[in-house]
Specification:
heterodimer; A: 131 residues; alpha+beta; mini-chromosome maintenance (MCM) complex, domain 2; 2 domains; four-stranded antiparallel sheet; three-stranded antiparallel sheet; B: 170 residues; mainly alpha; Arp2/3 complex 21 kDa subunit ARPC3; 82% helix; 0% strand
């Protein structure tokens, strides 16, 4: 019984450490986040397109029969519609995600291999590198 | 003759636990979104059965039950993408749980929480691999919160069941 108590004490220390770590990570993210400038869309790791956040637009991301409708509105991006099956296991379905606007935030459409991510680019106009 | 009976008992018991784990996957599918409020984020209920097998039967058996459960539930409720996510999550989670159980300085509660977190890490890694992006590392924060909460829940339930069921003679 004494040994058992010690184990439970270890459990509590472990869980407290995990909670603290999550708190620190979340806090750091909130502190250091910055507004993004553009939305980058990738399908299976390949770049599909980059779209400015400062212009309201509706983008149809299409590959074969798969489609995702990406909406940029008031500096935020979200997926309005997609034809993926709802069998996602762990990550939220892309259409259920909150609009994203901060650098590094992303929306995944796992079934379609689509990654929609906010990138920098101060004003979000034009490419980062001009040849 | 005696040996044969033992084997039959063993097979039957493991089949029973596999179906319990499978049933828990199904229950989780039905009530999952209700509990977490977010569709897609699950509680890891099948881990109650896996932990019981791990603590009361053995390591090899826990791996077998977990793997068969994933194969069947992917065929019944999911698809091949889901299979890979589940396998990666379960493999990492089981490895961590087996290791922590061997070290023997945590109770089933700590083991369960560590297992839940490892499960999330496994799934994130597969997502990074399949989608060729590191962006989704950010998901880990959200998943850690839900993972810790569900790990505690499953760990308490699992510990309760383990305490009440004595070791199987197989």
């Amino acid at each position: 019984m004494a040994e058992n108590k010690k184990k439970v004490k270890n459990d509590i220390i472990f869980i407290a450490a995990v909670v603290l770590l999550i708190g620190l990570a979340a806090g750091a993210m909130l502190l250091f986040r910055e507004e993004g400038g553009a939305v980058e869309v990738k399908i299976d790791g390949k770049l599909y397109g980059t779209y400015s956040l400062s212009k309201d637009q509706v983008i149809e991301i299409r590959s074969g029969d798969d489609y995702n409708i990406l909406v940029i509105e008031g500096g935020k991006a979200y997926v309005r519609e997609a034809n993926c099956p709802g069998a996602d296991t762990y990550f939220n379905k892309c259409t259920n995600k909150k609009p994203i606007s901060y650098r590094g935030e992303s929306i995944l459409c796992k079934e379609h291999g689509v990654v929609i991510a906010i990138i920098g680019g101060k004003e979000g106009e034009g490419p980062d590198i001009i040849m | 003759m005696r040996d044969n009976r033992k084997r039959i008992k063993r097979i039957t018991l493991l089949a029973l636990f596999t179906s319990v784990a499978l049933l828990l996957s199904y229950v989780e599918m039905l009530i999952g979104p209700l509990f977490t409020g977010v569709p897609g984020i699950k509680m890891g209920l099948p881990n109650i059965a896996i932990m019981l097998v791990l603590y009361r039967i053995g390591t090899k058996e826990a791996i077998a039950v977990s793997f068969i459960r994933i194969v069947i539930s992917s065929i019944l409720f999911g698809n091949i993408t889901m299979f890979w996510y589940s396998v990666a999550g379960a493999a990492l989670s089981l490895a961590v749980m087996i290791l922590l159980k061997r070290i023997d300085s945590f109770s089933s509660l700590g083991v369960s929480v560590a297992g839940a977190l490892a499960h999330n890490i496994g799934q994130i890694l597969v997502a990074m691999l399949l989608m060729q992006t590191t962006q989704i590392g950010y998901y880990m924060i959200v998943l850690s919160i839900t993972g810790t909460v569900s790990g505690i829940f499953v760990g308490l339930l699992g510990g309760f069941v383990i305490k009440r069921i004595s070791k199987f003679e197989i």
